[in-house]
Structure formats: C-alpha cells, structure tokens
Specification:
Elements (H helix, E strand, L loop, with lengths): L1 H13 L3 E4 L14 E9 L5 E9 L5 E11 L2 H18 L4 E6 L2 H13 L4 H10 L4 E6 L6 H7 L9 E5 L3
Parallel strand pairs: 1-6, 2-5, 5-6
Antiparallel strand pairs: 2-3, 3-4, 4-7
Amino acid sequence: MENSCLALMIRAVQRPPQLRCNVGRGRWIRPTPSWTKVNTDGARNQTTRFTTCGRVLRSHEGEWKMGFTKFIGIFSVLEVEFWGVYMGLLRAWELQKTQIILEIDSLEALKAIEAAGEDGNMITLMNYIVAMLRRDWTAHLQYGSLNGNKVTNLMAEIENDNTHDCVKFPAPR
C-alpha cells in the first residue's frame, strides 16, 4: 500500500493543473455530457468584514447536484475566492465526480492558482488547491463572468451564523 500511495503522490506532483478561460455571455454554460460543473464564489460583508464562500455542483443537463455555503472568517476577497475553489474541489472529490469544470469569477485568483501550479507556493491553501487539481481525475479551472455565476453568488452571500460548518443544500427529491 505504501508503494501505491507513493506512486500516486509522484504522479500527482508531475501532473500540471489544467486552467483555461471561458468568458460566457452572462449566462451559465453547460459542460459537455458526463462532466460536472462546479461554480464557486466568495463574498465579503463590508460592515463586519466576515467572508463566506458558496459552491454549486450541476450536471451537464443543468441538474442541481449539491450546493454549499461556508463561513470562512475575516479574510481578503482574494483569499475567500481561494477557499471557494478549494471547498468546491473537495466536495466534487467527495461526491466521486471524475470529470469536473470548476468555474470562478476572479481572474486574479485563477492567475494566482496557475502561477502556484508552475512555481510552487508558500501559501498552504494554495498548495492544497494545486494538490487537488493534480489528483487522479480530470479537473479544469476556468474563468466565468459574475453574470453567469448568479446562483453561486447568492449561495456565497448566505449567512450561516458564523459557524465554520459547511452547510449543504442537496438536490431536491
């Protein structure tokens, strides 16, 4: 088991993260069949400076798979975007999705993640994101406009009593 774990770690380090830019026309764009799209967003209350992030996972048909919101704390807008990316990747992995497109509305965050994948990074959270992208799955990060990410933006703005629990909104039955 130790050898297979080491082999996975070596392969993960060698796989470059796959990033691309897909600027939509202000609407949510479906992924191709068999893919899951994860939209993430961060929000910051200007009064309290508390931040939250929200994520929505949808199938290629636009079917709601899961939504999440999480209180993060007092962070910058860029940091909370990173938290949204990490939590979105983590939830997709936990749901055993093997082909995902993670879409964020922050070009600055996207470029920072790309740079971290090339150079390594001292920010622990960034290292976790890069490690998630290099796992044994197909995960693409891409930019999507805020207008195409409205549901996720609303999810990010949901206050959840300042607990650090991740609040899940499963698909309606």
